[in-house]
Amino acid sequence: MAGKKRGLFVGRFQPIHYGHIKVIKKILEEDEEIVIVVGSAQSSHSLDNPFTVGERIVMLRSVLKEERIDLAKCYIVPIPDAEMHAVWVAKLIAYCPSFDTVYTNEPLTRRLFEEMGFSLGTIPLFHRDLYDATEIRRRMVEDEDWRSLVPPCIVDLVEAFDGVGRLKALSKSDKRGGSNA
Q: Which CATH number is 97's domain given?
């Protein structure tokens, strides 16, 4: 890697929000490059994973440009889930450029990388009560304000992908009570 430090950041980005952007910027303050792993790449069209991996990559590239983050310092790599947690890190290593530090607060992800001997970085939580993709998706379904929690280019892309309509359709059920959520 010729002396460059490279950090790894794993997320599903369903959708990307201001908290994700702050984390990316923080990692780039500490490392020269970042590998942004788009997790659960095989999943889409569900309440937890409404956007396709292609849509999420478009969102990431758009927001990196909008935030004037040098794309030459960023690798975006989609990684599907593994059937067994124990092999997921090996799968990720095979898909990604080499990296020095893994930045995550998710306990299972931390444990898996720790067991493989990787250096772990902690990322500060930026208003986690607001900047949480689950909360943003809930607000989309309930017609509450979600637009203020994501950058303008993400609002435009979610609308272009009919993300709110998709989530609302997914939240419907043929069972009494009307919701899967």
A: 3.40.50.620
Helices within 40-119 (DSSP H only): 53-66, 85-95, 107-115
Q: Buried (b) or exposed (e) across 22-44, using 16+ Cβ within 10 A?
A: bbbebbbeebebbbbbbbbbebb
Q: Has residue 179 been placed in a domain? A: no
Range of the domain at 59: 6-170
Where does the chain have alpha helices with state H?
Answer: 18-30, 53-66, 85-95, 107-115, 133-141, 152-160, 163-171
SS3 76: strand
Chain segment 121-142, per-residue pLDDT in tens: 988 776 667 789 999 999 999 9
> pLDDT (tens digit, 9 = 90+) per residue, 22-58?
999 999 999 999 999 999 999 999 999 999 999 999 9
Q: SS3 of 10, please?
A: strand
Q: What is the largest CA-CA distance in the chain?
A: 60
pLDDT at 176 (0 to 100): 44
